[in-house]
Amino acid sequence: MRVMGLDVGTKTVGVAISDALGWTAQGIEIIKIDEKGGQLGFKRIKELVDQHEVTTIVVGLPKNMNNTIGPRGEACQLYADKLYKKLQVNVKLWDERLSTMAAERVLLEADVSRGKRKKVIDKLAAVMILQGYLDSQK
Question: Which residues are in the YqgF/RNase H-like domain (predicted)?
Answer without folding.
Answer: 1-103
